[in-house]
Write a structure and sequence with these properties.
The protein has 459 residues and is of the alpha/beta class. It folds into 2 domains: 183 residues, MOFRL domain (glycerate kinase, domain 1); 194 residues, Glycerate kinase, MOFRL-like N-terminal domain (Rossmann fold). 39% of the residues lie in helices and 20% in strands. It is built from 17 helices and 15 strands. The strands form 3 sheets. It has a 6-stranded parallel β-sheet with strand order 6-5-4-7-8-9, with helices on both faces. Strands 10-11-15-12-13-14 form a 6-stranded mixed β-sheet, sandwiched between helices. Helix 3 links the parallel strand 4 and strand 5. Helix 8 crosses helix 10, helix 10 packs across helix 11 and helix 14 packs across helix 17. The mean pLDDT is 96.
Length: 459
């Protein structure tokens, strides 16, 4: 059933749609790379540094993430005539249209390979693609340059386990971590100590070539070593940190034996640590963030003001259990309706970040949909409020939904149709709930990924 919207509600729903579009447009991966990377004759300019293509030997392009295809397209348009290889792993369904691929391949000096692979759980296609990357960047010289495009989802999409750990082991571990409520920082601390390309591994494998990495950040605060598990930067985590994550969430007993054995060997100093700050190898590595949650959030605020709303950016560090964050978001909406604080109506508060969900039920959903459902329950009966959640990649959890848009009437409408919102929340089944209420937000693949956005609108 589609929600019945009043004239004002319908108008503000349309405004929210435009605000979301402005946020996504601001972090379009292709535009972000083109803005960061310039070419003047034989010189490549990025982040205050210059690369003389005339004096460089081989130029290789590798990488992975949900935004990998448009990021690679931008680089191909700049220096496709100089590339010796292009190997990019992307989420299944996130590649370029066939016509665009054909045009790129016609103008590029090398074969262009986009490998579609599994996310959030890694699969054999991703491993095969990562293995091809590792083979391609091995045996290079000091004259060579490795270009790397990294974006959210890269951790799963560039999986290459260490010897003795299988893909099945990593799949099992990924499922355990996803269901535990572990943060992305914690998950990646574990993965960096179990894989070959993560934790500076790609930079190490490229030695002695120079490495230039362009990153679209999907991590709160933009820590370089957490974005896609930091393949080109020093790792600040240790084997002890990785083991502590398993203990914190009670996962050591469920984790595959091969993983437990490898981590224990690392704790005992029998396996070398990941590359750390101060390692000379990073003297020949440049890593630049070209897009982030903050850029998207700022654009959303600007568009909200253009819509005639009093708008503010609350934070880009939104973290915590989704249903707990929902209560805070609902409280903010109530405060605006009740007292025009912290903004006078009509108002729009924007927040960015990434919440987590501790999965206890057998339902289907994602952190944005769960946040929206919990907020709808907290806002039940409150008039003239809209709350929207958006996964900027267009895919919230293992669903085709990007989030949801709810109001103070969501719960009443659902109950009239025989739905029990509390039961759906208990079972972590927000996707099924919103699929029936008509409030599921679907964008399709956006080919970008800069965390999540939350919009609180009161009018």
């Amino acid at each position: 059933m589609a929600p019945l919207a009043s004239g004002d509600e319908a108008r503000y729903r349309q405004a929210i749609a435009r605000i979301m579009r402005a946020a996504l447009d601001a972090v379009d991966p292709e535009k972000a790379v083109l803005n960061a990377l310039r070419r003047e004759g034989s010189r490549l300019l990025v982040g205050g540094q210059s690369y003389d293509l005339a004096s460089i030997g081989r130029v290789l392009l590798v990488g992975g993430g949900k935004a990998g295809a448009p990021m690679a397209k931008a680089i191909l348009s700049r220096i496709g005539d100089r590339l010796g290889a292009c190997l990019i792993n992307v989420k299944r369904g996130y590649t370029l249209p066939e016509a665009e691929l054909a045009n790129l391949r016609a103008t590029c000096a090398c074969p262009v390979k986009f490998t579609e692979a599994g996310h959030p759980t890694p699969d054999e296609a991703g491993v095969a693609g990562a293995r091809r990357m590792a083979e391609t960047i091995s045996g290079l010289s000091e004259r060579d340059l490795v270009l790397c495009v990294i974006s959210g989802g890269g951790s799963a999409l560039m999986t290459l386990p260490v010897e003795g750990v299988s893909l099945a082991d990593m799949q099992s571990l990924t499922d355990l971590l996803l269901r535990s409520g572990a943060t992305i920082n914690e998950m990646n601390a574990v993965r960096k100590h179990l894989e070959q390309l993560k934790g500076g591994g790609l930079a190490r494998a490229s030695q002695p070539a120079r490495v230039l990495a362009l990153l679209l950040s999907d991590v709160v605060g933009n820590p370089l070593d957490v974005i896609a598990s930091g393949p080109t930067v020093p790792d600040t985590s240790t084997f002890a940190d990785a083991w502590a994550v398993l203990e914190k969430y009670g996962l050591a007993g469920e984790t595959p034996a091969a993983i437990v054995e490898h981590l224990r060997r690392g704790l005992a100093g029998k396996v070398a640590e990941t590359a750390k700050p101060g390692d000379p190898l990073f003297e020949r590595v440049q890593s630049e963030i070209v897009g982030s949650n903050g850029i998207a959030a700022d654009a959303a605020v600007e568009q909200a003001r253009a819509e005639g709303l009093n708008a503010m950016l609350l934070t880009t560090y939104l973290e915590g259990e989704a249903r707990e964050v929902a209560r805070v978001a609902a409280a903010l909406a109530k405060e605006i309706v009740a007292s025009d604080r912290p903004l006078a109506r009509p108002a729009c508060i924007v927040a960015g970040g990434e919440t987590t969900v501790t999965v206890r039920g057998q339902g289907k959903g994602g952190r944005n949909q769960e946040l929206a459902l919990a907020a709808a329950i907290a806002l039940s009966g409150w008039p003239r409020v809209l709350l929207a959640t958006l996964a900027t990649d267009g895919s919230d959890g293992p669903t085709d939904g990007a989030g949801a848009i709810v109001t103070g009437e969501t719960v009443a409408r659902a109950c009239q149709s025989g739905l029990d919102p509390l039961a759906y929340l208990r079972h972590n089944d927000s996707y099924s709930f919103f699929g029936q209420t008509g409030e599921l937000l679907t964008t399709g693949p956006t080919n970008t990924n800069v965390n999540d956005l939350l919009f609180i609108l009161a009018y």
